[in-house]
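Table S2 (text version). Query chain:
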Amino acid sequence: MSKHVIQSDRGAPPQGAYSQGWRAGDFIFVTGTGPIDPVTGKLVGNEIEQQTEQTIDNITAILAAEGASLADVVKVNVHLSDTALFARYNAVYARRFTKPYPVRTTVGSDLGHTLGMLIEIDCIAYLPEKRSGGTSPRAGRAAKKKARRR
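Corresponding structure-token output:
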């Protein structure tokens, strides 16, 4: 089973000592990400709908770096700053993810580490390595370099 880090310039940059994602065999693990603009590194939006959209955009970018999409997601964990926001976030979530929906846990959490952040989402996707081309773009580049050295 192969294992490597996933990094995307199109996803929110890490705000601490963690990676955006990891591929381990057929599974892709995406870190808890929030509504952070990948270019400015700043929080996007004041409303839960805007923040949910940006958070899912960030997840989509990290998945895409490995050839996956939201359709490959099998498990989602969602942290809301206030569980009263559930219905509004769920409306966006239901539009962005498709049936059959991934299994999901949604909890109320203290998201005070980023002022104004209302949501954080992490997920696990399943994408057989052979379906994604057998290697990630990063692994493919490394193999080409190695072949040139021969």
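Notes on Table S2: Helices lie at 48-64, 86-96, 137-149. The domain at 3-149 is CATH 3.30.1330.40 (60s Ribosomal Protein L30; Chain: A;).
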